[in-house]
């Protein structure tokens, strides 16, 4: 490696941390280099802890903040030039100058008042650098403009993320979200939604859990059960208020869970669906059925899940009896046309980030018109048409869902959306298709939480 000559200040880069341009002050009196960081927090397993922190790479520009993460290699007592001692986390990363790169150790400390975002100590300079203390910036200049371009996003390194899975169940889907996330180096924590509580205020909204505020998460993956939809969506809204990226937003989950609301959203976007009708008054039963068509008809509760609360009425008389029974229970329901040509089959399309990443055909158990796998149905991989693919993508987009299971029926006049599921399971579709669906979800999360370029401030004339 060619030996470089440094002045007392130089431009450097820490590419593994996503910091392509920093001004560093050379400090031969310090052994270890220091990076001025803030919001420093530990996460991950205790055997292999990581640290996450934010860096304002440009002095005086607190609107530009880069989130970094790295494994912790040590904790060290550091005494500053004014005699104050502080325990700091130590990380290892690569320092890059003039096309050359070598590993260094860095301590993390919050010194917001310092002009130099970084101090270079003896360990970073040893064997590589000679010092000319009366000069500065003897190596090629870099530019802070990189933080205002798309390059900061495109070239950002993959970093360890802290992710919360909102779930009350220890099932295949929850376990896969943890396993795949941790295999990618992320820290994934399962949070029981009903044990969250919220501090709702304008200045510092927080989500609390087990007696203390939850940490900052890079992303939240909601797996909200139907029975706790209102409270679960309130928790997600709180994360949204804080500014956390939520794979599925509260509004989309709320709308998709209410069958009536969901069909109104689909109708507004002109997305094909079975003819559907709803009425509150028992006097309107005959007219209600007439709006949908002739028997057989489907009668379903507005918040039915996994095929529960869904009844096939094969005759007009049977439909009237089912409707009367539901009304007697003061249950809200809707009536739908039965798509006979679907023959007890539907297609589940798994949509992630606006793309159908997998599709399977589900067939109901013998004698059952419902194709839900939870009710004994079977599944196999299926090739879908471009129209079916477009319909599934449009349906997920109508609810603003980053992850959705869209159920389609194949009818004589094109695909009909039966349901948009904001919390689809992964077991059936991964087993049927052999695809790593959870991995594709993490691809999207990693892309979403990369740093964004910041617009330059306008300067007055």
From TrEMBL:
It comes from the Bacteria. Pfam families: RimK (PF08443), Rimk_N (PF18030), Zn_protease (PF05618). One of its GO terms (molecular function) is ligase activity. Keywords: ATP-binding, Ligase, Magnesium, Manganese, Metal-binding, Nucleotide-binding, Protein biosynthesis, Ribonucleoprotein, Ribosomal protein. PROSITE patterns: ATP_GRASP. Residues 263-446 form the ATP-grasp domain. InterPro entries: Asp_endopeptidase (IPR008503), ATP-grasp (IPR011761), ATP-grasp_RimK-type (IPR013651), ATP_grasp_subdomain_1 (IPR013815), Peptidase_aspartic_dom_sf (IPR021109), Rimk_N (IPR041107), Rp_bS6_RimK/Lys_biosynth_LsyX (IPR004666). Its EC number is 6.3.2.-. Its cofactor is Mg(2+); Mn(2+). SUPFAM superfamilies: Acid proteases (SSF50630), Glutathione synthetase ATP-binding domain-like (SSF56059). GO terms for cellular component: ribosome. This is 30S ribosomal protein S6--L-glutamate ligase. It comes from Sulfitobacter aestuarii. The lineage of its organism: Bacteria, Pseudomonadati, Pseudomonadota, Alphaproteobacteria, Rhodobacterales.
């Amino acid at each position: 490696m060619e030996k470089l000559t440094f002045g007392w200040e130089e431009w450097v880069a820490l590419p593994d941390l996503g910091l392509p341009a920093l001004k560093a002050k050379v400090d031969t009196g310090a052994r270890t280099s220091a990076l001025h960081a803030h919001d420093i927090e530990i996460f991950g397993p205790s055997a292999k802890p990581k640290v996450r922190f934010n860096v304002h790479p440009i002095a005086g520009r607190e609107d530009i903040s880069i989130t970094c993460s790295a494994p912790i290699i040590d904790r060290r007592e550091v005494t500053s030039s004014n005699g104050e001692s502080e325990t700091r986390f130590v990380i290892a990363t690569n320092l890059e100058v003039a096309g050359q790169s070598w590993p260094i150790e860095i301590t993390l400390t919050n010194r917001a008042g310092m002009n130099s975002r970084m101090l270079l100590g003896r360990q970073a300079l040893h064997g590589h650098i000679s010092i000319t203390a009366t000069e500065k910036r003897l190596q090629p200049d870099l530019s802070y403009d990189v933080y205002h371009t798309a390059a900061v996003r495109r070239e950002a390194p993959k970093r360890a993320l802290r992710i919360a899975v909102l779930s009350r169940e220890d099932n295949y889907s929850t376990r896969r979200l943890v396993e795949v996330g941790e295999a990618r180096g992320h820290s994934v924590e399962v949070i029981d939604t009903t044990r969250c509580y919220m501090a709702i205020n304008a200045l510092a909204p927080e989500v609390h859990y087990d007696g203390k505020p939850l940490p900052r998460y890079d992303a939240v993956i909601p797996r909200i059960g139907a029975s706790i939809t209102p409270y679960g969506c309130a928790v997600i809204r709180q994360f949204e208020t804080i500014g956390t990226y939520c794979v599925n937003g509260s509004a989309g989950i709320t709308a998709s869970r209410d069958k009536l609301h969901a069909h109104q959203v689909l109708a507004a976007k002109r997305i094909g669906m079975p003819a559907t009708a709803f009425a509150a008054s028992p006097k309107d039963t005959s007219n209600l059925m007439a709006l949908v068509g002739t028997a057989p008809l489907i009668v379903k509760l507005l918040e039915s899940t996994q095929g529960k609360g869904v009844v096939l009425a094969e005759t007009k008389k049977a439909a009237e009896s089912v409707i009367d029974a539901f009304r007697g229970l003061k249950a809200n329901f809707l009536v739908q046309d039965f798509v006979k040509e679907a023959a007890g089959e539907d297609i589940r399309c798994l949509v992630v980030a606006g793309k159908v990443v997998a599709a399977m055909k589900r067939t109901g158990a013998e004698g059952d018109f419902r194709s839900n796998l939870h009710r004994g149905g079977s599944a196999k991989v299926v090739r879908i048409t471009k129209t079916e693919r477009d319909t599934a993508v449009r349906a997920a987009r109508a609810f603003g869902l980053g992850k959705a299971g869209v159920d389609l029926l194949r009818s004589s006049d094109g695909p009909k959306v039966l349901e948009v599921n904001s919390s689809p399971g992964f077991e059936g579709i991964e087993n049927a298709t052999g695809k790593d669906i959870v991995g594709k979800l993490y691809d999207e999360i990693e892309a979403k939480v990369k740093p964004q370029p910041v617009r330059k401030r306008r300067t007055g004339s």
